[in-house]
Write a structure and sequence with these properties.
Layout (H helix, E strand, L loop, with lengths): L9 H4 L4 H11 L5 H9 L5 H8 L8 H9 L5 H8 L4 H7 L7 H14 L5 H10 L2 H7 L5 H7 L7 H9 L5 H9 L7 H9 L5 H7 L5 H9 L5 H11 L3 H5 L1
Helix pairs in contact: 3-5, 5-6, 6-8, 7-8, 9-11, 12-14, 14-15, 16-17
Length: 250
């Protein structure tokens, strides 16, 4: 059986005005091809009614390209977009999760799908994801056991200082992660990062000690009085502060 001839040239569908596009969909929805549906959804005049009509057509939504377009389209009714999220491939989920033109509820569903699939990813996929994932996924990816994933995450433009402070303060932060943070060009010089590295008792002592000279006197005094501060760090603090006044007078 031959494929039917297109009702209009495909190149024209994307340029139709609102009235022409609506008429085209109404007259062809039952025999529309995958290519035509994608072009209709790419037209800036596609309305929620048009998106709904395509989303309710089982033949058209059997095509991955159509489902993906419906999820990412700003006019797709939310219930329809949510229905197709679980069918998307990882790469598209990752891309859509940071697309602010997609409604927040749909992006939350995308983040849930991403979180649920993390354990199934290869190392390469996890590294790639760490570089560009959403804020929500960052909170999961940062605890990946492979340092290469964490190194990639440090370059994610959505990573925040507060995220790293939470990681440093947690018991799950590895010595390698703490080291990577301490030498990172972007993050190593933030005061809250320096302070957090010193406060974490699992931070390698050479790294913790190297941060002391950058801390405020008030923070050094608190550290010196803290019973959880190691003897080594307390001695380093004493050397920074110099000998007591009584000794200097003697």
């Amino acid at each position: 059986m031959k494929n039917r001839e297109p009702a209009v040239p495909p190149s024209d569908i994307r340029r139709m005005d609102a009235a022409a596009l609506s008429a085209f969909v109404e007259g062809n929805i039952l025999r529309m091809t995958e290519e035509e549906a994608v072009l209709v959804l790419a037209n800036r005049n596609a309305t929620s009614q048009i998106c709904q009509a395509i989303a309710q057509n089982q033949k058209l939504t059997s095509y991955y390209t159509v489902r993906a377009r419906l999820v990412s389209h700003r006019a797709t009714p939310q219930a329809q977009a949510l229905k197709f999220v679980r069918h998307l491939y990882w790469a598209d989920l990752l891309r859509y999760s940071t697309n602010v033109l997609i409604p927040a509820a749909v992006r939350r569903s995308i983040d849930q799908q991403l979180a649920g699939r993390l354990g199934q990813l290869t190392l390469g996929q996890r590294i790639s994801s760490a570089k560009s994932c959403s804020t929500e996924l960052i909170r999961l990816v940062m605890f990946d056991h492979d340092a290469r994933v964490f190194r990639a995450l440090l370059n994610n433009p959505r990573l925040r200082e507060d995220d790293l402070v939470v990681l440093i303060a947690s018991e799950r932060a590895s010595a390698e992660q703490l080291h990577l943070i301490s030498v990172d060009r972007k993050w190593a010089f933030r005061y809250s990062i320096r302070r957090s590295l010193v406060l974490n008792p699992t931070t390698p002592r050479a790294i913790a000690a190297s941060q002391l000279r950058h801390l405020r006197k008030s923070d050094l005094e608190l550290l010196a009085k803290n019973p959880q501060t190691s003897t080594y760090l307390k001695r380093c603090i004493e050397r920074l502060e110099g000998p007591p006044a009584a000794e200097m007078e003697a």
